[in-house]
Amino acid sequence: MSEDNNRDSLIASARRALDNSYSPYSSFRVGAALRFADGTVVTGTNIENASYGLALCAETVAVAKAMDDGHRGGLVEIAVIGETGGAVTPCGRCRQVLSELAQLGDTDPVVWCAGNGEVVQTKLSDLLPRAFGPASLG
Ligand code: THU
After folding, report:
1. How far is the CA of 1 from the centre of ligand 1 (A)?
2. Ligand 1 test: best mutation among 57, 61, 95, most atoms within 8 Å of CB?
3. Is residue 59 within 6 Å of ligand 1 at its C-beta?
4. Could you tell me which residue, 129 or 3, shows the higher pLDDT?
5. pLDDT at 1 over 90
6. Which residues of 82-104 are buried (b: 16+ CB within 10 A; e: fewer)?
7. pTM for the complete prediction?
8. Distance 137 CA to ligand 1 centre (A)
């Protein structure tokens, strides 16, 4: 599979995940997809709560699902998409949550940030430089 097909298929997985978004308060649907070195793809979508501050972001839900499936590292590629014109970048908390899983396998995943009309390529280390992580605890 070419690099472009890889990117497009991961973004398509993230977009499909967004169909299950529970976001009645913001009406902002977000989907995320994580690709692992073994080819596995795990998706997540945002889940809100009547107590607004308890909202779970799509990326955090995807990481929780992946870790519940037993993944500990091997995170090579991430896609996040929102229903807006510009590319959606992971929020600060999600950067930290994604970073923990990446650091467990010593990878620096490519991050595709997408919207309806734009895709931006970045790396997790660019989004969260000098990240705190498991090794920081000594
Ligand atoms: N959201 C995500 O799912 N991921 C992000 O990285 C940014 C924000 C969600 C949280 C909330 O449900 C909605 O988008 C509006 O902030």
Report:
1. 31
2. 57
3. yes
4. 129
5. no
6. bbeeebbbbeeebbebbbbbbbb
7. 0.97
8. 29
